[in-house]
Amino acid sequence: QKEVEQNSGPLSVPEGAIASLNCTYSDRGSQSFFWYRQYSGKSPELIMSIYSNGDKEDGRFTAQLNKASQYVSLLIRDSQPSDSATYLCAVNRRDTGRRALTFGSGTRLQVQP
Amino acid sequence: DTAVSQTPKYLVTQMGNDKSIKCEQNLGHDTMYWYKQDSKKFLKIMFSYNNKELIINETVPNRFSPKSPDKAHLNLHINSLELGDSAVYFCASSQTRDYGYTFGSGTRLTVV
Questions:
Q1: CB under 8 Å to B53, separation ≥6 — which residues?
Q2: Please, which residues 18-77 of chain B have a Cβ atom closer than 8 Å to chain A?
Q3: What pLDDT, in 10s, does the model give residues A66-98?
Q4: Contact assessment for residue B17 and residue B56, using Cβ atoms and an 8 Å cutoff
Q5: Largest CA-CA distance found in chain A, in angstroms, rounded
Q6: By CB neighbour count within 10 A (0-12 exposed, 13-18 middle, 19+ buried), where does B52 fall?
């Protein structure tokens, strides 16, 4: 079982719709959760972080965390063609032996004009 | 001002050669990382340094050797390059483990 799992997609949504990206993780000790956006040929860019159960909103982005279900999601409202990219979920734990984010393999989002 | 800069951006080399990739961050972060991203976009941690001290050394062939002369620099030297080493290598830095990382622009390594 992979530590962080994402559907590879592509997830295709029309412009203006809500895109919903999902991620599950296996390590119950995980305590920090991040969403990165990566355009083709570019480096990952941090767009959201979330540390406690519930929702966290930032502009058109909402991150949702459910630690009991080991599930984190990202909602993108009013999707734009410029949102077309690969979205990477990453998790970390406060463990003295490990201090590096573990990434999922990403979900490719396509926003159709 | 580039926060995390890597050089070179592209590297094409023959099997068996030795090459180095350099990384520098001007964010004042205390931890730096090397990640490898394969053709399926999977990012895998290779090494992590905290204030020049190696703290993570994942299962990586010992042909790969990181070096951190100071907390703003983390270089990666690769000996005897193999075809399977072809990938994009990303350097990243963070202030603490609870914050997200800032990535460099990546080095696309192609071994022929």
A1: none
A2: 31, 33, 40-45, 48, 50, 55-56
A3: 999 999 999 999 999 999 999 999 998 766 555
A4: no
A5: 47
A6: middle
